[in-house]
Inverse folding.
């Protein structure tokens, strides 16, 4: 007897896998869990996909194919916004899969994904420059990358929003981003030279190296020997400062969170009134991101590698940090409810976090000013 597989089974598997990876992180999800979510056994799942890497690859590919299809037919910036919004809502896990998990794919596949995204941005840039011919290509590309990142922020919303409402707001955000003027942007101050740590500051040196290496290579791909070599000591000497690599990851993320909170909360607390506080907080967050892109990347990609107690602390911090911004934005825009404010704030974080790590635009000397203008656009608080 021939057993027929239900139609659309592969699509169903990919939808469940994308949702599980999105919610829990790639490393925390097993094939057995995906199979249970579909209602089949793990051996049955392996008849469709060889393993988790293929599941991740196919889930990302499915979302990016939908994005490319939507952008290919867009002829106006309004149609670009509609296409981006539809994919962001219809493939909500895509943002986290691309920004957090896609780096776990083989190098050749990562390079292919990057080329696909560049092709998408080239399509968007052509449409944008047709409507705004005064824009330099580099400026138009930055606006398009920012629109893409802002929509990806919907992926980090804890609860799926009502689709029609979310699409309408995202279309509004895309329109605001693509309308931003980058004329007269000012170059930021040059970063101060990094002084060589004193011997007694070896622990601090390790914390900084850990954030950098974990972000660039991933927690599992960094050895204690590599961590030690980064600060001029042997691998075993790392254990004089930290009990384990996991403890070093936790401590490095804690130190960076403390600096982020100190910088942003300090700026907000000293401002006169909600609007000034929001502007000051935005400026502080952009300044922090420009100097700490490795932390923002490691926070996004490596939080799931923490031990459960440390992971809860990290998640609680992000929740509290988000709540601070949402509360402040609603004071400035009282006509919007908490959901709309959360969508805007997530768009801001995604736009800035991508912006400081997305070459070649991350090398722009005026990037800080550009990101502040783009941030005000997605928050809906133009100057």
């Amino acid at each position: 007897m021939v057993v027929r597989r239900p139609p659309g089974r592969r699509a169903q598997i990919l939808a469940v896998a994308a949702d599980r990876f999105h919610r829990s992180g790639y490393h925390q999800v097993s094939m057995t869990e995906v199979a249970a979510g579909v209602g089949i056994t793990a051996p049955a799942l392996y008849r469709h996909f060889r393993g988790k890497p293929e599941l991740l690859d196919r889930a990302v590919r499915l979302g990016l194919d939908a994005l490319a299809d939507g952008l290919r037919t867009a002829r106006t910036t309004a149609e670009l916004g509609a296409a981006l919004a539809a994919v962001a809502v219809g493939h909500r896990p895509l943002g986290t899969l691309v920004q957090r998990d896609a780096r776990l794919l083989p190098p050749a596949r990562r390079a292919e994904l990057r080329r696909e995204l560049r092709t998408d941005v080239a399509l968007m840039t052509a449409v944008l420059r047709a409507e705004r011919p005064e824009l330099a290509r580099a400026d138009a590309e930055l606006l398009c990358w920012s629109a893409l990142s802002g929509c990806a922020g919907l992926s980090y919303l804890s609860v799926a929003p009502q689709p029609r409402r979310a699409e309408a707001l995202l279309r509004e955000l895309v329109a605001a981003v693509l309308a931003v003027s980058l004329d007269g942007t000012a170059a930021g101050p040059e970063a101060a030279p990094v002084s060589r740590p004193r011997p007694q500051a070896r622990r601090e040196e390790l914390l900084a190296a850990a954030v950098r290496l974990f972000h660039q290579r991933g927690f599992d791909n960094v050895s204690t020997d590599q961590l030690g070599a980064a600060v001029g000591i042997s691998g075993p000497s790392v254990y004089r400062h930290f009990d384990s690599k996991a403890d070093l990851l936790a401590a490095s993320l804690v130190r960076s969170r403390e600096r982020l909170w100190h910088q942003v909360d300090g700026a907000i607390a000293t401002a006169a009134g909600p609007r000034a506080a929001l502007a000051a907080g935005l400026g502080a967050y952009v300044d922090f991101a420009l100097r700490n892109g490795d932390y923002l990347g490691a926070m996004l990609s490596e939080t799931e590698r923490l031990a459960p107690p440390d992971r809860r602390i990290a998640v609680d911090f992000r929740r509290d940090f988000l709540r601070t911004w949402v509360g402040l934005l609603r004071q400035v825009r009282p006509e919007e409810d908490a959901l709309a404010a959360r969508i805007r704030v997530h768009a801001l974080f995604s736009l800035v976090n991508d912006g400081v790590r997305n070459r070649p635009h991350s090398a722009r000397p005026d990037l800080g000013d550009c990101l502040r203008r783009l941030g005000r656009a997605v928050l809906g608080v133009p100057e």
About this structure: The chain is about 70% helix and 0% strand. The longest helix spans residues 107-131. The two ends are 70 Å apart (CA to CA). The chain has two domains: 13-178, 199-379.
